[in-house]
Amino acid sequence: MTRKPFKIFLAVLMSGVFLTQTVFAETETATENPSIEIPVPQSTDPPLIDDNGDTVTTEAPETQPAPEKPARDPALVKEDGLVFAGVASLFYNNTLLSEISPYLTDAEKDWELRATAVASYENFGISQVDSYLNVRDKASTDGNVIGKMTNHNACEILEKSDDGKWLKIKSGEVTGYVSSDYILTGYEAKDLGKAEAFEQVVINTATLNVRSDATEDASIWTQVSGNERYDFVKNVGDWIEIELDSSTGYVAKDYVSVAFGLNTAVKYTPPKEEIENTLRDRIVSYAMQYLGGRYVWGGTSLTKGADCSGFTMKVYQHFGIYMSHYSGSQAYEGTKISRSQLKKGDLVFYAKNGTINHVAIYIGDGMVIHARSTRRGICITDMYYRTPVRYVRFISE
Question: Would you call 152 a catalytic residue per the annotation?
Fold first, then answer.
């Protein structure tokens, strides 16, 4: 049978972070004051209670909802006009990669798959910054910030200003203007994009259960969102192991696609300076200074690296609010609030198998900033990238 040529279109898959004319250096560093350590054995954590006062249950349908899946070639997963690789094989020069694999080394196959991360861009660009880059609504430092990019975020370059100082770009869901000084273009950009591309998992449903093992009999410990992209770990039969933050879990392969991709900008509008005077605003603005920073397990330095609870501890410590360096302790040191009471600067907690193991700072509009993982570092994500189990307030009204 003769195969018809197939052109690969692969969009960069990831909520990332945005751009600006200048990269703001970290102007403040949290004082490295010792904090009070309050060890809380994981086995003694109280049961998790939802906003209605009910104990959190792990019983849930596999997806919310589970749409009908079209018949698919097992060697090719195609959704919404995009071709995703990783489950089986990918077209390469109009030929299935699996058919030409005897002629490629493993390194060559890996490089060709990485190339798909930039293949759909007509004018590819990639950010090069130490921390983050603002995306503005006009080609001027007077423009309002509408998004942010961290290092090595991908974008489509739409146009260049007459003086060459500004680029209009589209990165993820953000379209705006950035300084051309911090965007790499041309062949050098494409090579860097290939080198930085990594396998990402796209959730093809609104929500999807995450299980503790690669079997339907395993417990469901959280759900993931179709609004986010997750790091691919490995294939395990009919399941895929994904990395959510510092935790991993298993999702059913039938409801996901896997592809090489790059992080992109995320939407964010800071408070107006004239009203940025509440403690909540100042906490969020201070936390945002470290966007793009390193994740280090056990770390408590905002400049050298922190884990999730080290990040929240040090941000709050800067404002004279002290808490333990352990998310399981932080969850019970503040005041428990409901989802409807959540405000900027409050903490959002996540759990695995009934034990709290991650924390983030709510920044408004359904988004959080947190020290997520080694690959992602300090980043902004949808609050529901995994299911929150507790909301806590440390800020006196």
Answer: no
